[in-house]
Amino acid sequence: MNQQRFEEITSKYSKLRVAVVGDFCLDRYLEIDPAKSEVSIETGLDVHNVVNVRSQPGAAGTILNNLVALGIGELYPVGFCGEDGEGHELLTALNSKPGLHLEHFLQTSERRTFTYCKPLVLVPGQAPRELNRLDSKNWSATPESVWSRLVDSFETLAHEMDAVILMDQVDVPETGVVTSDLLDSVHRIATARPAQLIIADSRRSLKNYPPVHLKMNNAELQALTGASASTWDEIQNTALSLARTHGRPVFITLSERGIVGAGPNGAVEQVPAFPVRGEIDIVGAGDAVTANLTVALAAGATLREALELAMAAASVVIHQLGTTGTASVDDLRGLFFSS
User: Fold this and answer.
1) Domains of the chain by range and CATH?
2) Is the pTM of this model over 0.90?
3) Cβ contact 191:83 at 8 Å
4) CA spacing 20 to 30 A to 128: which of 4, 32, 235, 338?
5) CA nearest neighbour of 212 among 247, 176, 168
């Protein structure tokens, strides 16, 4: 991609309207100073002294963070948090971001706030070391009083957006935002409006998803299709077959190998990953890919251009240690065109 084309695509970002529909969580980082370690008098166990706490939106919120960093004009999160301390932190973090419209983000006593609590040991001169996470999740089905409002929000927004991102982050079906009822609504709209740009990602499976763009990793591709896909030819052929069957483009991330994109029209592209430039932390790379694929396509990028921008964003993010990072347009420009 030359610089003129890069500027043409990214100059449209400030005019885009994007909805992110999915499981927003609180990423809470507990920064631990090992020099201040103690042993508990009561239990005899090691005590980790937390010297700083920082929080940011995670899961679907990580996608949102990347869209904010890219300067997207208007952003509409569709999801929920609980009426708890974590929900207060999450709403505070969301309210601090420019361009967000929160009228479709629910705070409800019927759900707890999905939280990833990440203890980080910080030693000067070393990369942060994450200890075992402490997660808070919902284990019961999302009540109708919540999911029905989310379905209404999706249907209200879908017709007004340049793009919609679906992010299903929960481990147990029907316990999050992307319930079967919401997917039924997505199916109706995607079928009635085939030109509507909707991209879906799910940590469980995209099997039986509506006719929307699908983004997954190679293990998920193999589980979904039952095909052995390890060589480049196998991955491309499997992705192309899935795109034709599904009737929408398919994107397959391949970690350090790069990414493959295939369209139902027979187009298929592969773009390698950027070289590693030091220590890396892969957390958040997939969400950066989702955000950048979506807005690049919404701004008129070709399949290959969208893949190139997504790989640049992933490269920027994995080099941000001890946090779930983001990539701005300036970051991407520097990676593509720095001498």
Assistant:
1) 3-333 (3.40.1190.20)
2) yes
3) no
4) 338
5) 247
